[in-house]
Amino acid sequence: MPTFLKKTPKEEHKLEPWKILVVDDEPDVHAVTSVVARDITFLNRPVKVYSAYSGTEAIEILKNVPGIALAIIDVVMETEHAGLEVVRFVREDLRDKRMRLVIRTGQPGYAPPREIILKYDINDYREKAELSGNALYTLIVSKLREYKDYTTLDKQRLLLSKLAFLTSLVMDLKTDEDYVKFVEELFDGIAQILEVDVKIEHRKEHLVNHKAYKRVVWSGLGADTSLEFNLRTGYSSALHFDVTFSAEVEEYFSKILDVFLNDLILEVENNFISRDLTDTLYKIVYIISEVTETRSLETGEHVRRVGEIAKILAQEMGMEDLEVEYLEIAAMLHDVGKVGIPDSILMKPSQLSEEEFEIMKHHTIIGHKILSTVDHPLFNMASTVALYHHENWDGTGYPKGLKGEEIPLCARIVSIIDFYDALRSDRVYRKAYSEEETLKFLHANNGKKFDPRIFDIFMKKYEQIRKLYQ
């Protein structure tokens, strides 16, 4: 881990306020919302309210004001469906999935149909009489928290893609100019993802005592604004980098950068850039997979176990070592597409309706789209697993209804593991099944959901697998 060699006094950074858009043709609604919002400070950030008195005015604000976290929208304004047009504009024209949308109406008869709520991911519906005082305060804070969580997950996805792409370039770094360009591209990309500015300075250093040179040093613990590190480019020479962000970097992201930079530095220091940074990717994948599972009220242990069992089965099937390693990591990302599923469905404490289940099925397609943006053998396998791990051996699965060996082998392996672990684990809508009940389900679905050959291997290695649950 990094050695913190020094701490510098932190400057006070004025945090940007949370932006809320109120869309309503009644001035009193704006006045009440502004009064309530004035008393809200969430994560040390105040709230700024933008007011629109028609759907048309709201769309103009949305075009010109980026980063709106929450929009509270009346349905009936200049037209009966003016508010729904604003919702459509956010989700379709702006393609903004982060913004939380709340419908607030004084005319319940004009409430949006359920299919509209699902299609456009409307996050809440309230009657105006409900929203005053404490109720409005609670609503705003809860939606800001949802926005913060969704934004963090989205940034995690983008950061993982960026680090994975740059990892593939490390083998080509040879000169000081290559290293400088690499670091500048790395931190420019990170700053863009984290929505901050960054200043990068470097200088060449002569290392008199090469054992004492600095690794990664942040300016302090927790939420940091700057760091410094050396990349050794010769036995007694190094490039020293000072990186300063315009705003605090959350501890979560600084930990990811610590992992990545320390592994990178060790590779360059030894002048033997001869292996892929798979270990680094594994750590980052685990962190992100754990956060994804936590959002769906599952545990990070689900992620770990799915990966470990995939490794056990792949080794028993005689896969090459690199394929085994890739499958272990890919299996951990099988449900990353759940980041795109609305909270109302993901966290529903009862069985999903048919309509909701159709939306839930899209997590396979979303996960494939996320992971296929990275051109790397690991992520090629991960995107395949994400897309096909709910296909069934008899052709009754989704999203494409593939049958038998039409289903990629990696997805067939993860399918039985995910099914088994899901039954053995508590879910938001039910308690875990017993081991005996789970095995009955497994046997009943052999040749239906599962490849019989993989089922036989699973049962052959079952004593090793069951130890993971003790």
Automatic annotation (TrEMBL):
<dbReference type="InterPro" id="IPR052020">
    <property type="entry name" value="Cyclic_di-GMP/3'3'-cGAMP_PDE"/>
</dbReference>
<dbReference type="InterPro" id="IPR011006">
    <property type="entry name" value="CheY-like_superfamily"/>
</dbReference>
<feature type="domain" description="HD-GYP">
    <location>
        <begin position="277"/>
        <end position="470"/>
    </location>
</feature>
<dbReference type="InterPro" id="IPR001789">
    <property type="entry name" value="Sig_transdc_resp-reg_receiver"/>
</dbReference>
<feature type="domain" description="Response regulatory">
    <location>
        <begin position="19"/>
        <end position="143"/>
    </location>
</feature>
<feature type="domain" description="HD">
    <location>
        <begin position="299"/>
        <end position="423"/>
    </location>
</feature>
<dbReference type="GO" id="GO:0000160">
    <property type="term" value="P:phosphorelay signal transduction system"/>
</dbReference>
<dbReference type="InterPro" id="IPR037522">
    <property type="entry name" value="HD_GYP_dom"/>
</dbReference>
<keyword id="KW-0597">Phosphoprotein</keyword>
<dbReference type="Pfam" id="PF13487">
    <property type="entry name" value="HD_5"/>
</dbReference>
<dbReference type="InterPro" id="IPR006674">
    <property type="entry name" value="HD_domain"/>
</dbReference>
<protein>
    <submittedName>
        <fullName>Two-component system response regulator</fullName>
    </submittedName>
</protein>
<feature type="modified residue" description="4-aspartylphosphate">
    <location>
        <position position="74"/>
    </location>
</feature>
<dbReference type="InterPro" id="IPR003607">
    <property type="entry name" value="HD/PDEase_dom"/>
</dbReference>
